[in-house]
Design goal:
The protein is an alpha/beta fold. It is built from eleven helices and eight strands. It has two domains: about 220 residues, Alpha-Beta Barrel (TIM Barrel); about 30 residues, no CATH class. The protein is about 40% helix and about 15% strand. Strands 1-2-3-4-5-6-7-8 form an eight-stranded parallel β-barrel, surrounded by six helices. The termini are far apart. Helix 7 packs parallel to helix 8. The chain binds 3-methyl-2-oxobutanoic acid. 3-methyl-2-oxobutanoic acid binds next to loops. 3-methyl-2-oxobutanoic acid (KIV) binds next to loops.
Amino acid sequence: MGRKATAGAPKIAMVTAYDYPSALIADRVGMDMILVGDSLAMVVLGYDSTVSVTMEEMLHHCKAVRRGAKDSILVGDMPFGSYQTGSEEAIRNAVRFLKEAGMDAVKLEGGVYQAEIARAIVRSGIPVMGHIGLLPQLVSATGGFKVQGRDEEGARRLLEDAKAMEEAGCFAIVLEAIPDRLATMITNSIKIPTIGIGAGAGCDGQVLVMHDLIGLFDRFTPRFVKKYANVYGMIEDALTQYRDEVVNGQFPATEHTFTIKDDVLARLYA
Ligand code: KIV
């Protein structure tokens, strides 16, 4: 997965998945990478933020994704609290993503400040994807879901973050919610691929949260999301129709039912 779009290679396509059927589909359509993102906290488990999701919950979903995906590279997102407390615990938890849940790599949020942890995990033999820019695990500390790196100081910090994660040995970096020309500049300044989400077209690849792009998350849609479907609406229509047909006796129809021979039934009634 070392391909840089600047070298004319096709861009890297990545999407999140959280369960067996979504992983199966993502894998079959040829996604290069599938991220079992901690966004599952909000879009699948209904938490208010990603902070609450636990290692056990992440591993549970990773295992389901592993069973669905055969070819895509699988990246498990290390949840808040699973790597910030020191290299030893970070390595122990990263190992669990590979050993227990069958992931190929892990992702963690942070730049310069998490570079030592990332380096330790890489040195233990586990591929690490970095994640800089908007860091959902830190939104309460950093003032909400805001575009990062708009002023010179912030932009310089992001460039340093990217270089620190590259230097730590990360194999790729997610750039989240940063201005497109800054993302392009960062992409051109490092050798490892950048995967953008709300970071413009100049990145080496793109990632989106599956429930956003298929229209299955009802709470909000970030500006950078393109909605390719309205699955929420489709499920709502199907369930409404099913409920109505059950209530008015239209379902099940003859074609959905099993038969029994007349004589067998007659003997039961006798
Ligand atoms: O958890 C997640 O889905 C992510 C993506 C937004 C990159 O980290």
